Amino acid sequence: MKSFNDLTNTLLEKVKKEQVVHPFVNEKLRIRKGVVHKNVSLFYKEDRKNDKIYLITFFNNQMNPKTLKKLLKQ
Predict the structure, then answer these.
(1) 11 to 24, 28, 69, 70: CA distances (angstroms)
(2) Of 13, 26, 29, 31, which residue is most buried, by most CB within 10 angstroms?
(3) pLDDT digits (tens, 9 = 90+) for 22-49
(4) Any idea what DSSP says for residue 48?
(5) Residue 27 in domain
(6) What H or E segment, with its residue span, contains residue 37?
(7) How far is residue 25's CA from residue 3's CA, in Å, rounded to a whole number?
């Protein structure tokens, strides 16, 4: 659990410092996808104006993608 937490925090620090830019999975809603671990992706939105990152969901990449579509309301 600690390792996963560390991986997540590292990813978020890179996003915060603009060291990495992840692709949009839904451009209209401005939702981006970052890979925390080969089996887990993080979906998030950035609000640079207010210096915030909104975590939407973690997703197990081995699950059915239809489940993800429901979560992201695509």
Answers:
(1) 16, 23, 23, 24
(2) 31
(3) 999 999 999 999 999 999 999 999 999 9
(4) G
(5) yes
(6) strand 31-37
(7) 26
